[in-house]
Amino acid sequence: MPITRRAFSVAAAATLAAPAFAQAKLEKTKLAIAVGGKAAFYYLPLTISEQLGYFKAEGLDVEISDFAGGARSLQALMGGSADVVSGAYEHTINLQAKNQFIQEFVLMGRAPQIAIGVSTKNMAGYKTLADLKGKKIGVSAPGSSTNMIANLVLARAGLKPADVSFVGVGTASGALAALRSGQIDAMSNTDPVMTMLEQKGDVKIISDTRTLKGTQEVFGGPMPAACLYTHAEFVQKNPNTCQALANAIVHGLKWLQTAGPSDIIKTVPDAYLLGDRALYLASFNKVREAISLDGVIPEEGTRTALKALASFDPAVKADKIDLAKTYTNDFARKAKERFKA
Fold first, then answer.
1. Which domain holds residue 46?
2. Quick check: bond before 192 cis, omega within 30?
3. In this structure, what DSSP letter does residue 327 have?
4. Are residues 251 and 313 in the same domain?
5. Cβ neighbours of residue 137 under 8 Å, at least 6 residues apart?
6. Is pLDDT at 21 greater than 80 in this prediction?
7. What pLDDT score does 23 carry?
8. Domain membership flag for residue 263
9. Residue 2: is its pLDDT beyond 70?
10. What's the pTM?
11. Boundaries of each Solute-binding protein family 3/N-terminal domain copy (predicted)?
12. How far does Cα 180 stand from its chain's mean position?
């Protein structure tokens, strides 16, 4: 894939600067990363770091496998076919409630970037959330972050997850087709899909966490989203490898701080544009502020996530969760210092 002159100069500068940061020997250089819906803006920092060669610059040989949603990529980690997941932070809390310990070690998103919209065709008379009872709601994959956000919003209206039917539709063209063909009545999904449906008049947005303001309104505080996480034991045994991964992601976050829309278009694969470059760029401008600046997860945000999950999932008991074990900022802080993010 062609890399912009600007991107090349950034990458070249990083390569030249590398000796200043003598890196400890990596415990593991070949890594399998699982992600659920890689084309979504939710995971843009992962794609940027991959496309601009930042993983390779850290001595990593990374193979990224794309799944239909975050729940599937988590299954890959638990099943042993992935070393690390690029997924939603809240999975670390959910699993601890089941006495399984996974840990976030670099943050990519500081807002969930998930919007919920009702079909203007199937639900033309929509008035309140109660109207969703008995309806089919599209999510990236059952159990994924898009599903969790929908559960939270439904709970606020007194609806339980069992009051609706969740349908896995992915995060790309399949999601667009499912809504437009009338297979589903509403959708909880990420951009660029939601902006494309919104701008074409296919959905009416009823809940929006694509901006920091919208996230504050839905959750009452900051809500960490996309991150890299893995087994806590993996972090303990492979600190240099985790540092290299955090470096690559924070390098990508730093690039994104000043990248223009044309830089993004030239760097991501054409398939990610879903056939509409202008709408893709409109989506990017909408979610840009939701991207983490430095990879560090805010402590307040972890508390917001726990409170949100405990509000609709009886298995998550707030007083039984040790939030300190769900994340570490050690690697992100070192990467932030290195790249001046």
1. 5-111+223-339
2. yes
3. B
4. yes
5. 116, 150, 164, 165, 166, 167, 184, 185, 186, 187, 188
6. no
7. 72
8. yes
9. no
10. 0.91
11. 30-259
12. 24
Domain termination residue (choose one: 208, 240, 266): 208
C-beta neighbour count of 217 within 10 angstroms:
12
Residues 6+ apart with CB under 8 A from 296: 107, 329, 332, 333, 336
Structural contact between residues 63 and 38, judged by C-beta atoms closer than 8 angstroms: no
CB contact at 8 A, 13 and 44: no
Contact in structure between 176 and 225 (CB atoms under 8 Å): no
Residue 8: predicted pLDDT:
47
Amino acid at 78: M
pLDDT, residue 340, reads 97
Query: Which residue intervals of the chain are DSSP H helices?
Result: 5-17, 44-51, 54-57, 70-79, 90-96, 145-155, 173-180, 193-199, 212-219, 232-237, 239-258, 261-267, 277-287, 299-312, 330-339
Pair (227, 334) in one structural domain: yes
**Burial tier of 204 (Cβ tally within 10 Å: 0-12, 13-18, 19+):** middle
In this structure, what token pair is assigned to residue 296? 């560090």
Q: At 222, phi and psi to the nearest 5?
A: -70, 140
pLDDT (tens digit per residue) in 244-303: 999 999 999 999 999 998 999 999 999 999 999 999 998 998 899 999 999 999 999 999
Residue 193 has pLDDT above 50, yes or no: yes
Number of H helices, E strands in the chain: 15, 10
| Among the listed residues 27, 34, 16, 81, the one whose alpha carbon sits nearest the alpha carbon of residue 244 | 27
Q: Which residues contact 114 (CB under 8 A, 6 or more apart)?
A: 42, 145, 146, 149, 188, 189, 190, 194, 209, 210
